[in-house]
Write a structure and sequence with these properties.
Number of strands: 8
CATH class of the largest domain: Mainly Alpha
Order of helices and strands: EHEHEHEHEEEEHHHHHHHHHH
CATH architecture of the largest domain: Up-down Bundle
Helix content: 40-55%
Strand order of the largest sheet: 1-8-5-4-2-3
Largest sheet: 6 strands, parallel
Distance between the termini: 25 Å
Strand content: 5-15%
Structural class: alpha/beta
Radius of gyration: 20 Å
Number of domains: 2
Bound molecules: nicotinamide-adenine-dinucleotide
Shape: globular
Amino acid sequence: MSSFQESFATTFPAVRVRFGAGVRHKVGEEMEAMGLHRALILTTPQQADTGAEFAALLGARAAGVYSGAAMHTPVAISEEATAKALALGADCVVAVGGGSTTGLGKAIALRTDLPQIVVPTTYAGSEATGILGQTEGGKKTTLTSPKVQPEVILYDAELVRTLPVGMTVTSALNAMAHAAEGLYAQNRSPISTLMALEGLRAFRDALPRVLENPDDLHARGETLYGAWLCGTVLGMVGMALHHKLCHTLGGSFDLPHAETHSVILPHAIAYNEAAAARELAPVAGIFGGKSAGRALHDFAIRMKAPLALRDLGMKEADLDRATEIATQNPYWNPRPVEAGALRRLLQNAWDGAAPAA
Ligand code: NAD
């Protein structure tokens, strides 16, 4: 069955995407094609060495390196990095890293309109969206703007090879969550649906091979392909209960980003399956199971993903408060978000139990 819908609207941002092991060596070529001469290279402190490698690669095209990117894009860091970009006369940013580094590049673009070249090293997918989450005074706000959409993405399998196996799994499930929720989004289109399904298939096929051999560049490339597709879906359509729960747990209980997505995914999908059975049926087909929620849970077990909120540091006593926060200002969701059912979902996720059928 095709993904056709009788009526739909969709917008495609103008993004150039290049894939290939070693494609990071083309970053100067990409700058040249865009008429750019001075890049500020961005990384986290943990990936400062990669930043230095890029500075060497770019030679005179490197204006400098800023290795202060941090989780959830703190505004103070964005302002410091923006000041550095302006002081160095940078005409673009080259962000090398995961969602945190990409977020910093977006925050600089928001303030300066500098073009962004992103070289992702996780599967989070932020490089494919015009979405920016920022934190200030302990509060996270999210905006969507074409100003923050990166112009060029270079997916280099050699760079994602260093991602530790545990992070590889949680980051992949984080990406898969964008696709799974995209399937029932109100503003989905046949194109977002086919990208979501292809993204899920890419992870189903390649993730087990990456776990078997983390240096398998073909499999690593295929997981990046999945990340691009799933991230593009995130940028195209609205998210629902799963993302709301993860934002609640991350924002109010300080749970780690990718791990929380991993644990919640099968539960949120099982919750919504009652209201979006037709849209989620292909997920059960792709992962092999009677239902999408159970099939994703079984895949997570096979991938040795974390399964329980209690293992991420969540206190059982906080589950009532999490339910309360998650039911305030809910995102649109295919199934009404009802406190009792949500509390049961969170209990299952805390216990590490299989999702309710
Ligand atoms: P991250 O960018 O915070 O990276 C986690 C850690 O892993 C960092 O220390 C990083 O340096 C390190 N790392 C990254 N790649 C590595 C590699 N290949 N080898 C070794 N170490 C590596 O983690 P993330 O999960 O990619 O991003 C999470 C952040 O991205 C969150 O703040 C989240 O809100 C945001 N995000 C935003 C969007 C969006 O569209 N705006 C989408 C997804 C995620």
